[in-house]
């Protein structure tokens, strides 16, 4: 560790890195960006010059081998979150990984386990959770300000600028649910806990959901409903409805640095709770750095990312089948393929034949996972040169953009 600072390496030159995270890292008093790597060397060099990054590595592997790098930021396409987080952890680097953490809950669980085994911090980059308006929303809902809460309504949609956008590529983990719907799932869970069932309907184009509506049911007759999409007008909001009032958040996920507010309605009365402007990326990074330097557990453990992915898996399954999908404890165990301490405690409550079946299932998946990792974790030269987010043929042209604002999200 670089004394009282965390030294960062950046994997790729994605838009989210250039426009959001790198500027926030430069504002972090206890962070130093020391290296960057990209499959497009020119882009890496340009980014390094823009942000005064001293080293440009020729490959991701070379960056991970750099002893002066303590932590990496992984903004690669969703399909590359899993392999490069594993490699980062094996290299002893802490990881701030863009959302969603992986392609599915099984991948996410393996990322958590490898990072834990290697003693490195893993955090999913849901920056909105660190904004004071989100913290205030949680306080108001928990205080009974609107009575017993029973409904969370949210939306996050935008219109992609080009058909070549990687968020329309199924091989790279594209789709509205993965890109922006994950925020809606996350804020529902943040307020209500873990859902019991999931239902979704979607419009599919080119192998990805371009629009999706979802319904999550929680204990206590609570519900979260949302819509998301990458071929829809730009919208974002979150409303929490209780027995005696409601709270509206107009910009829950991207408030930028402008002052924010929460609108509380009770009967015919309204009042606003004003929130000073701030940079949620700076706050997220400050928390990550504090956890690394102070060896404190994070506010949101990486298992939360696994749980979020599990709900996304269920929503995709429901959209495909047209049926409601349950999220029981047994299903959670089977889907995550876990035999960690938490799962072993759960096993004690299952019949012996179910325990044995679960163990056999785990062994089969471990064998398949070893084979898959051998194929995925090959030297970088064997990977497609255009897999990096916004690089190669997936680069979004700067000319001809639509006039609609497009959210810069991971």
Textual characterization of the structure:
The structure is a single chain. This protein is globular. Helices cover 38% and strands 24% of the residues. It has 410 residues and is an alpha/beta fold.
How helical, in percent, are the residues?
Answer: 25-40%
Number of strands: 15
Q: Uncertain regions: pLDDT < 50 for 5+ in a row?
A: 332-405
* Shape type: globular
Order of helices and strands: EHEHEHEHEHEHEHEEEEEEEHHEHHH
Give a short synopsis of this structure.
The protein is of the alpha/beta class. It has helices at residues 15-26, 41-51, 60-64, 81-90, 105-118, 132-143, 176-192, 280-294, 303-321, 329-336, 341-347, 352-376, and strands at 6-11, 31-37, 55-57, 71-74, 94-97, 122-124, 149-159, 197-205, 208-218, 222-229, 231-242, 246-249, 260-266, 269-275, 325-326.
Topology of helices and strands:
Elements: E1 6-11, H1 15-26, E2 31-37, H2 41-51, E3 55-57, H3 60-64, E4 71-74, H4 81-90, E5 94-97, H5 105-118, E6 122-124, H6 132-143, E7 149-159, H7 176-192, E8 197-205, E9 208-218, E10 222-229, E11 231-242, E12 246-249, E13 260-266, E14 269-275, H8 280-294, H9 303-321, E15 325-326, H10 329-336, H11 341-347, H12 352-376
Parallel strand pairs: 1-2, 1-4, 2-3, 4-5, 5-6, 7-10
Antiparallel strand pairs: 7-11, 8-9, 8-15, 9-10, 11-12, 12-13, 13-14
């Amino acid at each position: 560790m670089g004394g009282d600072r965390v030294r960062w390496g950046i994997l790729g030159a994605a838009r989210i890195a250039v426009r959001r995270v790198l500027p926030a890292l430069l504002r972090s008093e206890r962070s130093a960006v020391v290296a960057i790597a990209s499959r497009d060397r020119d882009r890496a060099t340009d980014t390094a010059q823009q942000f005064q990054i001293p080293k440009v590595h020729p490959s991701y592997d070379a960056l991970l081998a750099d002893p002066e790098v303590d932590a990496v930021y992984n903004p690669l396409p969703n399909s590359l979150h899993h392999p490069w987080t594993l490699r980062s952890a094996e290299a002893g680097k802490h990881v701030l990984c863009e959302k969603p953490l992986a392609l599915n809950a099984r991948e996410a669980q393996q990322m958590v386990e490898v990072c834990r085994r290697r003693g490195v911090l893993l955090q999913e980059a849901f920056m909105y959770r660190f904004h004071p308006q989100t913290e205030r929303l949680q306080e108001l809902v928990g205080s009974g300000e609107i009575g017993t809460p029973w409904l969370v309504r949210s939306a996050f949609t935008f219109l992609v600028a080009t058909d070549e956008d990687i968020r329309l590529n199924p091989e790279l983990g594209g789709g509205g649910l993965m890109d922006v719907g994950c925020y809606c799932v996350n804020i529902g869970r943040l307020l209500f806990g873990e859902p019991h069932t999931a239902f979704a309907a979607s419009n599919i184009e080119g192998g990805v959901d371009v629009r999706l509506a979802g319904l999550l049911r929680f204990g206590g007759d609570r519900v979260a409903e949302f819509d998301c999409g990458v071929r829809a007008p730009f919208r974002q909001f979150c409303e929490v409805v209780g027995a005696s009032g409601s709270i509206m958040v107009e910009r829950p996920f991207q408030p930028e640095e402008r002052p924010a507010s929460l609108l509380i309605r009770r009967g015919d009365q309204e009042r606003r709770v004003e929130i000073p402007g701030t940079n949620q990326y700076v706050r997220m990074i400050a928390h990550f750095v504090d956890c690394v330097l102070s060896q404190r557990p994070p506010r949101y453990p990486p298992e939360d990312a696994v749980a979020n992915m599990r709900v996304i898996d269920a929503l995709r399954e429901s959209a495909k089948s047209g049926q409601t999908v349950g999220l029981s404890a047994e299903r959670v165990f089977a889907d995550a393929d876990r035999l960690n301490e938490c799962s072993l405690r759960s096993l004690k409550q299952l019949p012996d034949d179910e325990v044995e079946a679960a163990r056999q299932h785990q062994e089969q998946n471990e064998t398949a996972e070893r084979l898959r990792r051998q194929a995925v974790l090959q030297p970088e030269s064997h990977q497609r040169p255009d897999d990096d987010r916004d690089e190669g043929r997936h680069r979004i042209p700067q000319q001809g953009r639509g006039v609609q604002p497009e959210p810069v999200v991971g």
